[in-house]
Amino acid sequence: MPEIARSYEAVLRSHIEAHRQMAFVSGPRQVGKTTSCRRVADRSLYLDWDDQDDRRLILRGPRAVVAETGVERLATESPLLVLDELHKYRRWRTFLKGLFDRHAEQLRLIVTGSSRMDLYRRGGDSLMGRFLPYRMHPLSVGELLRPQVPERELEAPSPLSQAKTNALWEHGGFPEPFVKRDARFSRRWRLLREELLVREDVRDMTRIQEIDQLEILVTLLRERSAAQLNYSNLAREINVSVDTTRRWIAALCRLHHGFLVRPWFRNVAKSLRKEPKWYLRDWSGIGDAGRRAETFVACHLLKAVEMWEDLGFGAFQLRYLRDKQKREVDFLVVRDDRPWFMVEVKVGDTSLSPALSHFREQTRTEHCLQVVTDLPFTQADCFARSDPCVVPARTFLSQLP
Questions:
Q1: Would you call 383 exposed, middle or buried from its count of C-beta atoms within 10 A (0-12, 13-18, 19+)?
Q2: CA torsion sign, 176 to 178 to 179 to 183?
Q3: What one-character-per-residue DSSP string does 153-186 give?
Q4: What count of other Cβ atoms lies within 10 Å of the Cβ of residue 162?
Q5: Residue of 180, 271, 290, 275 whose CA lies nearest to 229
Q6: DSSP H helices in 25-71
Q7: pLDDT above 80: residue 115
Q8: Which of these, 107, 297, 317, 367, could form a disulfide with 334 (CB 3.0-4.6 Å)?
Q9: Over the stretch 242-284, which tens digit does the pLDDT of each residue have?
């Protein structure tokens, strides 16, 4: 199977050269974390918690691990240690704190994990100042065009080949089905990944016991990507409380099965009271063309927003807009607490949505784009105009990382 160059590999190499902090790499199951880290590690020490021999070494403690890196030998650069799936070790934070505090000047560290790596956000200050996070996403148009470290938020438009565009749309952005490009394999891969997430990841990383009911919720959410969630209706369908439904969906988000996009208001409390929209991380199994198109763009935007934050370009949020008259725009990207650009997604409709002009007046957004998936690529900068305009999805997505 041919290898795909990932921009995250370039990001991690840049991190190793520039920073003493550990690199924390989190992301969905089978997104390519292990492959990318193995390439970055090359001849360095790579330890996988799922490997019994590696696990035995890790359990011997930081000193035993460091001794294997050759840190005491004279070298032109600091050795690199990659710890894969370390989040499965109950005392992973204590282990890393001791390892970093003693050897930060002589050793570079990359730590990966599927879900619990996000616990550092609410795990106290035990690792404060000792790591920088990198959130890994499936392949996107921009990454297939430019597998390098982004030097700016937006790039000049560039066409992606028709074959890669079709493969991304039909098979999704997870590397293995994208490379194989076999419809039957993609279908089996997608179902197995969902089963492993519910039966293994949920069991290992949450306290949810009602797995059969959770499977029903996952099935319902598969059909409702790009829809506003109604927690009460979902709770009735799976016969649990509304609070339980919220907790389960939050757990699925932490496990990277999907993500929520909340409405944007100047009043944060008001925003939290409104129901969010739900999106799957893998758009390839969505049958409805409109929902797939919106999810496709949503995944690209989330990847851009999180990568811009991880690379230090600023503070970004992905939101949507909706008012009491039910006027709605699918996405609003907020930069440093100020609306930057809004996006309305259409499959083939090129008649400009009046909601764009309405919300432009309300938010003073710099750019208002109606992104149409069926339009051919145009060699023109989507962000050169400030008035609402219709742009091809192929052009727009090529400008994102």
A1: middle
A2: positive
A3: S-----PPPHHHHHHHHHH-SSHHHHHH--HHHH
A4: 11
A5: 275
A6: 33-41, 52-59, 62-69
A7: no
A8: 317
A9: 999 999 999 999 999 999 999 998 754 454 457 899 999 999 9
What is the total residue count of the chain? Answer: 401
Instruction: Report d(CA 310, CA 341) in Å as an integer.
Output: 20
As given in the structure block, the two tokens for residue 307 are 């990568």
Give the model's pLDDT for residue 19: 94
Q: Are 234 and 217 in contact (CB under 8 A)?
A: yes
Q: Alpha-carbon distance 216 to 51, whole Å?
A: 33
What does the DSSP 8-state code read for residue 353? P
Domain extents in the chain: 7-136, 142-398
What integer pLDDT is reported at residue 177 of this predicted model?
A: 97
User: What is residue 265's DSSP assignment?
Assistant: -
User: 7-136 sits in which CATH class?
Assistant: alpha beta
Task: State the pairing for strand pair 22-26/108-113.
Answer: parallel
Amino acid, single-letter form, for residue 171: H
- What is the rounded distance in angstroms from the CA atom of residue 399 to the CA atom of residue 390? 15
- 3-state secondary structure (DSSP) of residue 307: helix
Q: How far apart are CA 189 and CA 177, in angstroms?
A: 7
Burial class (CB in 10 A: 0-12, 13-18, 19+), 113: buried
Q: How far apart are CA 330 and CA 240, in angstroms?
A: 30
Residue 322 identity:
R
What sign for the dihedral angle of Cα 258, 263, 266, 267? negative
DSSP state, 123? S
Question: Is there a contact between 329 and 314 (Cβ–Cβ < 8 Å)?
Answer: no
- By percentage, how much of the chain surpasses pLDDT 90? 76
